[in-house]
Structure formats: structure tokens, C-alpha cells
Amino acid sequence: MPEGDTVWRTARDLRVLDGQVLTRTDLRVPQHATADLTGATVSTTVSRGKHLLTRLDNEITLHTHLGMDGAWSVHPAGTRWRRPAYTARAVLATATHEAVGFTVRVELVRTKDEDRLVGHLGPDLLGEAWDPDEAVRRLRTRPDVPIGVALLDQRNLAGVGNIFKNETCFLAGVDPRTSVRQIDDRLPRIVGLAHELLAANRDKPVRDTTGLRRPGHWVYRRRGACLRCGTPIRYAEIGPADTERASWWCPTCQP
């Protein structure tokens, strides 16, 4: 599933439509197949964790979520699509540009009702109103949850995916299976590291969490030895049975 930095960059790309009148729209999902947004002017697109909100001047918001493998493609009008047409779920066209959402989840809502869709989310790691203290407070409300699970819970802080979960835990020196209660005094640092990682990567074409000469990751999907100490990397699925997520960690660097 795309991480918060990917969604932030997608919102930035979609803002090329800001101030433009929609000349053609096509929402290819059953619940909105008859909706026509033609004639509305795009006000802006913002990201909220892993959610995208495209606001129109008619007080309607197009809410999209990239899910596991969705993506928006924004290109000059008349450009050939980059994915098969049958995977398109939303099309927004103006006189100069076209934006196509492939395999995205789509919903229309009145702009004043956006909180119905995203109001449950914790502080947005890449948002202007980022509040680390609130993120720590929310993490502490479920002290028995493993930190690797808690970081992925968008109700605590919005934007962390499995890559940044694994890399944050490594940099914090914490085993992802450790309960929030056991590392309570380290939560501010963990939250701070998550924010730093996403902020450092939001403008990068290739994600890098190590800062080493060759871009890459410390532990995420890594087989073999730890880049820092040489200890074999371990792997396990952690979390509730229906939402288990892959975790990698170094038993020496993350005791």
C-alpha cells in the first residue's frame, strides 16, 4: 500500500488542475457512475494521511484512496494513458490536462462533510497541522498493542505504511513486536523519527531511509545481514490474524 509520502506527492501532482474548469469527468464505479462534475472548477487537492481530497467550487469533494496498488496519472491532454483503460476508476479532464485514477477507491461527498471520511484519522505526518504530542497521546491509549501494529493504525498518526513502520522501528532501536507500554518513554522519539523519514522522502523520486551512498532501506524486505552490525535480519508477520503485516528487524540493533 502506498505510503504517506507517495500520497503527498500525488496531491502535489494533482494540483496542476487547480483553478481549471473540468471539461469532462468519468467516475467508473457503480455508486457514482451517473455523476457528472463537468463545469465545476477545481479548487485544490490535499492529502490526509493516505487519503486524497479533490475539492471543487461547487462544494463537492472527490475522495480517493490508492488502496494497495492504485495511482493517479496526470498528463497533458491527449496523452496516451499509462495503464490499461479497464483499470481506470476516475477521469478528470480540463482544457490542458487530464488526470486518471487507476484502481483507486472513489467516493463523492459534500466538502463540509469530509470529516465523515477522514475525521477518524490521527495527526497527518505531512500536514500543516502535524501535532506530535497528539500522536503520542493516541498511541498511549492502546498500551498493549505492539509498536509495529500501533504505527500502522491510521487513527494514531496518519501516513505511516509498512516501509516506514519497519524503518522507524530500526532507527529507534525497537523490536516491532514490543508493546507500546514497554517503550512509553521512547514514544516521542519514535513519532519524531517517523515524521523525519516521511518529510525527508516526500520530494524524492527514489525512497531512501538509510542516508547511505546507495538509496535503500535498513531492514524492509532485507534478506541476509544487517547493514549496520552484520547480524542476520529476522522476519515475522505481526498483528491481528486478519491484518498481519510483514516485519523485518535486527535482533542486535533492535533488542
How many structurally independent domains?
Answer: 2
**Major sheet strand order:** 1-6-7-5
Let me know the largest β-sheet: 4 strands, antiparallel
Poorly predicted ranges (pLDDT <50, ≥5 residues)? none
- Report the sheet-strand fraction: 15-25%
Distance between the termini: 28 Å
Indicate the mean pLDDT.
Answer: 95
- Which structural class do the helices and strands define? alpha+beta
Rg of Cα set? 20 Å
Helices and strands, in order, run as: HEEEEEEEEHHHHHEE
State the CATH architecture of the largest domain. Answer: Orthogonal Bundle
Report the CATH topology name of the largest domain: Helicase, Ruva Protein, domain 3
Percent of residues in helices: 10-25%
Instruction: Name the overall outline.
Output: elongated
Written description of the protein model:
This protein is of the alpha+beta class and 255 residues long. The chain folds into two domains: 4-118, N-terminal domain of MutM-like DNA repair proteins (Alpha-Beta Barrel), CATH 3.20.190.10; 132-249, Helicase, Ruva Protein, domain 3 (Orthogonal Bundle), CATH 1.10.8.50. Helix content is 21%, strand content 22%. It has six helices and ten strands; from the N terminus they run αββββββββαααααββ. It has helices at residues 4-14, 115-118, 132-140, 147-150, 162-172, 187-201; strands at residues 24-27, 42-48, 51-56, 60-65, 71-76, 88-93, 97-102, 105-110, 234-238, 245-249. The chain has a four-stranded antiparallel β-sheet, covered by helices on one side. Strands 2-3-4-8 form a four-stranded antiparallel β-sheet, covered by helices on one side. Helix 3 (132-140) packs across helix 6 (187-201). The longest helix has 15 residues, at 187-201. It starts with a helix and ends in a 6-residue tail after the last strand.
